[in-house]
Design a protein that fits this description.
Elements: E1 2-4, E2 13-19, E3 32-34, E4 38-46, E5 50-64, E6 71-86, E7 93-95, H1 96-107, H2 114-117, H3 126-139, H4 145-155
Antiparallel strand pairs: 1-7, 2-4, 3-5, 4-5, 5-6
The structure holds zinc ion.
Length: 156
């Protein structure tokens, strides 16, 4: 779905709707499986060099647990999503569908744990993974404070 820059007024353009799950076109073995249409709300602002988009993304997915590899249902909801696109010289429009597909894939957790995301769920492989992580922690040097400072700043 192309959004033309010439259609975006100075006060911004409000768009909302749904895209079918087929926009994802992922391999069945992918750890992310969309299970229904995804909904979007987007306020689009066009500047000289960038297009800024802000809104909400929601949709039903199955995600693969990084520990037990089982798929679990997850209702994704990103209430304050935003993105920026660079405007190339001569570019007249951008494809909203592609943007929203990429944003979902970026925002969904890449190594989710079923027991962290499903209330009451006990991951059958949790203990194995924790033992493995303990082993790794014993071997690996402690991470310096720099990493966490950077993370904290990023979260704000
Ligand atoms: Zn699990």
């Amino acid at each position: 779905m192309d959004v033309f820059f010439s259609d975006i007024p100075a006060e911004g353009l409000h768009l909302e709707g749904e895209f079918p799950k087929s926009i994802f076109d992922l391999d069945p073995a992918d750890p992310i499986r969309p299970t229904g249409p995804v909904r979007y709300e987007a306020d689009v602002y066009a500047f000289d060099e960038v297009v800024a988009v802000a809104g909400r993304l929601q949709g039903p997915f199955q995600l693969q647990c990084g520990a037990c590899l089982e798929y679990f249902d997850h209702e994704a909801d990103f209430p304050a999503w935003s993105a920026e696109l660079d405007r190339e010289p001569g570019q007249q429009s951008f494809d909203l569908e592609t943007l929203i597909r990429e944003e979902f894939l970026l925002l969904l957790p890449s190594h989710p744990r079923c027991d962290e995301m499903v209330p009451g769920r006990v991951c059958p492989k949790a203990e194995l993974v924790e033992e493995h992580l303990d082993d790794l922690a014993d071997e690996a040097p402690q991470q310096g404070p720099g990493v966490w400072d950077a993370l904290d700043q990023w979260k704000q």
